[in-house]
Amino acid sequence: SLGERARGGLYEPIHGSAPDIAGRGIANPYATILSAAMLLRHSLDLQVEARALEAAVSTAVDGGALTADLAARGAAGISTRAAGDAVLAAL
User: Fold this and answer.
1) How far apart are alpha carbons 30 and 73 in whole angstroms?
2) Helices in the chain by DSSP H: which ranges?
3) Rounded to whole angstroms, how far apart are CA atoms 23 and 4?
4) pTM, rounded to two decimals
5) What's the DSSP call for residue 73?
């Protein structure tokens, strides 16, 4: 907690930034992207932009842009870059 005064915040997925798999293209970027939506909403008061980012992630996932941790057992899943591209396309 940073206290009650509005002065910014620290935004990171609860699992951290996964440095052990950095650069391998296998990380799920959705929690990081949703952390950016939290920054937009809570630190910058950009409600519309935060909702747009959240909706884009939902659209990507609902459209089948699933990384290996979200894909069905035995399915390969898409790369980190492909997941990010799916969010960008939905924006």
Assistant:
1) 19
2) 30-42, 47-62, 80-90
3) 37
4) 0.85
5) T
